[in-house]
Amino acid sequence: VMTTIDYSVWDHIEVSDDEDEIHPNIDTPSLFRWRHQARVERMEVFMKKGEELEKSLMESRRKLAEAQRRVQELVSASTPEAKADLAKAQEEEKQLKKQERSWEKKLQEHRIEEKKMPWNVDTLSKEGFSKSVVNVKPEKEEETEEEKEEKHKTFVEKYEKQIKHFGMLRRWDDSQKYLSDYPHLVCEETANYLVIMCIDLEVEEKHALMEQVAHQTIVMQFILELSKSLKVDPRGCFRQFFAKIKTADQQYQDAFNDELESFKERVRGRAKIRIEKALKEYEEEERQKRMGPGGLDPVEVYESLPAEMQKCFDDKDIQMLQDAISRMDPTEAKHHMKRCIESGLWVPNARADEEGEKDKEEGDEPQYEEVKKEEQRLE
């Protein structure tokens, strides 16, 4: 008996929209494509090797047949020359038989290796997977990026709540029932939204929830890959995926788990990049806010000052600062003073300007008109 799920419990879940400026079809499919491309290339090399072995075996058999034909022609030979040719042809036949056995062995080993290879979303989705092909999709022109973007935006606006519900399911039966109730969710737009949702959750440090949605993302991705392989509408083949995955076939389950773990790693990497980017942007914004009148960052200027000058600022001691400057080389002192003014570390004439501000909090930075006098002396 199938359990009834109360999907309303997930209504409070919110997904940030900070990816809206980036078209989802530019960013999200790459999470699958990066690893998929490497695997496809490895499979192509492996299959090419198999083809070359088959060609070598066929060529070996052709040469063997030719040698056997020559032996047949010379078998009734009576002249010494013909007998010599026969012996030569028989030796060649013997060598070619060895070659044939060698190629057969190599090809057999290659086929055994192929059977041992772990299943993946490509090998699982071959025509042999299922004979019940329905709703054959007609070939259609490739959509433009603008059309894909508009399609995604419209779809999400309409079905966002349902996609979130699907993202929170776990049991195969629950997922199949939900897609049976809402078959329009079986599409690329759902997969793209789920990927963005995973990245958002990881950025928000909701790691367990991310892993939950990642599971459903791979469910959708497997269905879509199966659809492409069979050239059928995904709505017509999602039941085939669940039928296979629920039989507890170990190879199929291992392939699914392998894809899932790889995807979660990609999500973590993408989230880390986004966090680092956001942090960098925040730090730059804060730096811009701190900029002094001369366009210098007071933090950077403070850190570049000699230790004795830093102590003056820490203690807010004007006399100590004047003494420190007087002991320094005039050129170096002038350089540091100029940078302090341009960064806003001190405002030389500010004391006179702020005489009227009686309620100014204690502990604010001291004013340095005396230091301005020192600067003029050095000039």
From TrEMBL:
Coiled coil: 50-113
GO terms for cellular component: cytoplasm
Domain annotation Cdc37 N-terminal: ranges: 4-132
Localization per record: Cytoplasm
Domain Cdc37 C-terminal: 290-377
GO molecular function, one term: protein kinase binding
Matches recorded under InterPro entries: Cdc37, Cdc37_C, Cdc37_Hsp90-bd, Cdc37_Hsp90-bd_sf, Cdc37_N_dom
Protein family according to the UniProt entry: Belongs to the CDC37 family.
Subunit record text: Forms a complex with Hsp90.
PANTHER family linked: CDC37-RELATED, HSP90 CO-CHAPERONE CDC37
Function as written in the Swiss-Prot or TrEMBL entry: Co-chaperone that binds to numerous kinases and promotes their interaction with the Hsp90 complex, resulting in stabilization and promotion of their activity.
Name the UniProt record assigns to this protein: Hsp90 co-chaperone Cdc37
